[in-house]
Amino acid sequence: MPRTPEAQYRYNQERIEARRQNPRLNAGYLKYMKGYYEARKDAMRAKSKARREALRLKVLTYYADGSPLCKCCGETEMAFLTVDHINGGGNKHRRQEHIICLYKWLHSQWLKTGKYPTGFQVLCMNCNVGKFRCGVCPHKK
Length: 141
Ligand SMILES: [Zn+2]
Ligand SMILES: [Zn+2]
Fold this sequence. Notes:
The chain is mainly α. The protein has helices at residues 5-21, 23-63, 90-97, 102-113, 125-134, and strands at residues 81-85, 120-124.
């Protein structure tokens, strides 16, 4: 008995659905898709990391007046360097401006006004924390 068009449609849909739910048929495809996304995820992560690092370098270079180094101890290792609020109040500032990433914020100010905000300097993590805890970096005491 020939199928009506509706019955044929239902039959097709059922077959598609069955195929979709058949893990044996899907395994290869899913594996392939997962591999695709994994590979892209890594590439995307690497790309955004590179972008962040480039931004950091740009901001640190500006505030260090040339090649980035700690204004207090002269540390040049990029991984240690930070932007410091010269007059303190970093946390308050962060809250006020809803800053998640200070580098991004500084850069956005630059995009808006054509210049970086004043009141910042480059310090390494040690000097930054030293200054925060003691008021002035222990190096300077
Ligand atoms: Zn330092
Ligand atoms: Zn210091």
